[in-house]
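no rush on this but wanted to send it before i forget. what follows is a protein written twice so to speak, once as letters and once as structure tokens for the fold. mainly i need to know what kind of three dimensional shape the backbone takes. thanks a lot i owe you, the record is right below.
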Amino acid sequence: MAAEEQLTIHEAGRKLAQREISSVELTRAQLERIDRLEERIKSFITLTPELALRQAEQADQRIAAGEAGPLTGIPMQMKDLISTQGVTTTCASRMLEDYVPVYNATVAERLLSQGAVLLGKGNMDEYAMGSSCENSAFFPTRNPWDLKRVPGGSSGGGAAAVSAGEAVYALGSDTGGSVRQPASLCGVVGLKPTYGMVSRYGLVAYASSLDQIGPITQDVTDCALVLNAIVGHDPKDSTSLRLPAADYAAGLGEYTTPSPLAEGGPQGGPVRLGVPEEYFVDGMQDGVRESVQAAIETLASLGASVEPVSLPTTRYALACYYIIAPSECSANLARYDGVKYGFSYQDTQNMWEAMERTRAGGFGPEVKRRVILGAYALSAGYYDAYYLKAQQARTLIRRDFDRVFDQVDALVTPTSPVVAFRLGEKINDPVEMYLIDVCTVPANIAGLPGISVPCGFSQGLPVGMQLIGPHLSEQRLLNIAYAYEQATSWHTERPEL
């Protein structure tokens, strides 16, 4: 295999099955590309070349024995907050710089049991707190389309790696858009499943009621293949859903008619798509607006019924998120006290001083900002005014979605109001940075699935279209995204590196 050839999962799977290439050859080609590009992209925190080649050899043995699955022998990257046994898992934080888990996260176990090949752990915003991948304690990741710009966050390492061809696919996590937004900014596909569909066991928690693991891939078919592998009930996760088995890739079907969405609705009629006016916010770049509107027109030409809808409480979602998420993170990160594991300040005999200095030195500025915000929102005298009020607003936001999904089958929105911005442009303005999440946060607040697919370019940079559906409507969203993808070629565009 040529080092420059970028294969999707399904393309690589066919070549492996037909013995045109071996997993070892494919993995070596990926490692060569990483060696050539990584100094510029910086998508990996930890590389595992020796482990990857061992896994590739084992994958070739499985393929030869006729025991291969769709992901067997395919090299991938895993976000560095997903626990991997024997492989450093840092959360891009000094606090966990030397932490090596003794167990695998459930998603890691499921992928590895299918013969996946782990190239390494992806860079991210520290503890998944950020929208640009600039908050990593180690280095920022750069967007392959313009190395002076951010890849988005917090799963920026995964999106950049897939876009640049450093990994065939990646696994990220999405708390307020952290899979979909970087996918949009890097011109790839990113899916946040329904809350509870994918086990969070072994995912280092940021905000437990919002976090969800999801795939970052080159196209929709790959997204469905990875989803197949990671969904399923897990008794180790109390929020894990019990669902019937499903094959999301097989469910994509063959779209051979000129109007594939004309009969794809739940009642057999056209797919009904709603366009919520609240997502086309003030400050949205004209090029983003135009690309998404053109994508909506394409969906209509494929037979979908398109109508405007309103989600009035959406305007409160961002404020609601930035109370609930910091509150949960302040509780989750209380475990990092310098006693049990991780970074520890030892130059004092005073326990409280040691804990204070441990947290001051181990956490970066954005993490400390959110911990302080959360502690304030949960404190006596402010709990009812902030945290309780945010939870009440969350209920209203969910009801708004329920009402709209009685009228339409899915929503079409921009994924991000802007294309990738310059490194350093927003890092010193937290409020402006938080506003980048305005289109993605509502789905997390309501626990809904959402997918971002490439839909055009503005200023020479990728634009993403987001589809949001009711709970457990992943197959419907994938079908709509697939139909759009088959009618366009945006997903085939890759940066020149």
User: Anything to note?
Assistant: The mean pLDDT is 95. Residues 1-497 form a domain with the Amidase signature (AS) enzymes fold (CATH 3.90.1300.10).
